[in-house]
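Board notes, transcribed. Complex of a protein with S-adenosylmethionine.
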Amino acid sequence: MEIDDHSKWLTRKRVDNYLSKIDIIPHRSEGESVLLDLISKKTKRILDLGSGNGRLIKLLKEHGHNAEFVAIDFSPYMLEELSKQFLDDTSVKKIKHDLSFPLPSNIGKFDVVVSSFAIHHLTNRRKKGLYSEIFMLLKRGGIFCNLDHIFTDSKHLNTFFRKKMGHKVINKEHNKRLTKLDVQLDWLSDIGFTDVDCYWKWLEFALIIGYKPFR
Ligand SMILES: C[S@@+](CC[C@H](N)C(=O)[O-])C[C@H]1O[C@@H](n2cnc3c(N)ncnc32)[C@H](O)[C@@H]1O
């Protein structure tokens, strides 16, 4: 039986393939660098959704963040890689959870919620639901940062993007879950986030930001 594109993360092959290319995804470090600069060093608790092997957490630590981190992912292989990366580091807690379902209710509140290249795997309905749950989990004044793959209506931009990424074939299964930037910004504003905007963009990659108002 053919497994769907998203469930492939539950296989060693997909995880190894991604990790072998993790550092050569074009321009991602530019988006990550804007994200890192936006997060205060005084931050106490950070949640990473679809954490993978903990790339973003490692970058935050290298950037001087001494927060408590909670990493959520549904792939046992990714979580295994994350555990290897933070062997004796008690500041990183991992939770195996499928983001297609509501977030666990017992994880507490966070100053910051981050995610990179993970939320686009969810359906539109679930993305919007997750954004509402993130709003509830954030402390007042908290920030949500989603560096992700977005949908474009422009065939020209999509062709150029695929060329730059070295993608020879169109992965229709993957692309059908992508969501337009303006749609996602509207969802965040409707939920109650403020200062919602795209703080960085390269072709189909965007850094989407929203703050939970102080009151
Ligand atoms: C492209 S990787 C990105 C990993 C990491 N955030 C990074 O930037 O390197 C996508 C990650 O999302 C996770 N993921 C995809 N769908 C998920 C779901 N429904 N629930 C939890 N994690 C999911 C995968 O297991 C994988 O670790």
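The beta strands are 45-49, 68-73, 92-96, 110-116, 138-149, 194-202, 205-211. Residues 124-137 form the longest helix (14 residues).
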